[in-house]
Amino acid sequence: MESADLITKAENTWCPGCGNFGIEHTLKDVVAGLIAGGTPAERIVLVTGIGCHGKMADYLGVNSFYAIHGRTLPVATGIKIANPELTVLVCAGDGDCYGEGLEHLLFAAKRNVDLTLIVHDNRVYGLTTGQYTPTSPLGFPGRSTPLGTPEYPLNPLELMIAAGATWVGRGYSRRLPQLHELIAAGIRHRGFSFLDVFQICATFYNQSKFYDEHVYDLEAGKFPTADLDAALHAAREFDYSRESRIPLGIFYETTFPTYGERLAGERAKETDPVGVMQRMIAERT
Ligand code: SF4
Is the CB of 193 within 6 Å of ligand 1? Predict the structure, then answer.
């Protein structure tokens, strides 16, 4: 299996220079590797949301599902619970996932659903021609905020670490070998793996120069860490100002029973519910 085998007949309509191309090619490489390694193609499912990223469902030749806006994660959760044998991948946008779908994002992390979420974080609504999203910077002069948005951006990595995600990383659509490693590691992780990818929107918010000058790799040996404080400290380093550096890599990784495992009743055999809760808290901290 080669990544070229996963090319579909759908016409690609992304803008020239769009960062989605890099994510698409990288994801195809990773999926081709999974299949070559023995995962049956029919056991790989991709769920996408609404936005430019959503066309991944058309361009990647595996089973796929277009969810409605912000609803990738409930759909993906249902798929994984219905058939735990499936490898479930989710592509969502920053507006899709951090705006319309924020509640679902928090609960997927909290539940530790065993799936891999890749957020195409271009920090703008590209499909609807340039409105601000939850990760646009203060003062962003989008179509809906010609005088500049008065809102500060949220930090999705900080949010995910706090919400209970058991694997949290950040990649960049112009650093593809590293992105390959990150996606593959996220898929290998058992539990909820969250990968925010700074994706260049060439048409409405091209930050290539800024990212190229500010990204760096998290220190090997220190990261990934299971230390919540250390992970949060690293996640806060990029404060969305034009001065701060931007760490890339895996910030946080830990193990914890997945939502499916707990649903399957592994814990239901316990006769002491208080003891179960105490042990789960101890495992989590
Ligand atoms: Fe890519 Fe932006 Fe064009 Fe959408 S609008 S296809 S995100 S460059």
Answer: no
Q: pLDDT tens, 129-140?
A: 999 999 999 999
Question: What does R_g of the chain's alpha carbons equal in angstroms?
Answer: 19
pLDDT > 80? residue 18: yes
Mean pLDDT of the chain: 94
Please report, for the chain, the start and end positions of each structural domain, with discontinuous segments joined by +.
3-254, 259-285
* pTM score, whole prediction: 0.93
52 lines ligand 1 (CB under 6 A): yes
- Nearest residue (CA) to ligand 1, atom 3: 15
CATH superfamily label, 3-254: Thiamin diphosphate (ThDP)-binding fold, Pyr/PP domains (3.40.50.970)
User: Which residue has its alpha carbon closest to ligand 1 atom 1?
Assistant: 18
Q: Which one, of 136, 39, 137, 52, lies nearest residue 91 by Cα?
A: 52
Q: How far is the CA of 283 from the centre of ligand 1 (A)?
A: 42
For the four alpha carbons of 20, 25, 26 and 31, in that order, the dihedral sign comes to: positive
Which residue is associated with the tokens 């609803």?
A: 71
251 lines ligand 1 (CB under 6 A): no
β-pairing, 193-198 vs 215-217, is unpaired
Q: How far apart are CA 255 and CA 276, in angstroms?
A: 17
Strands 116-121 and 167-172: unpaired
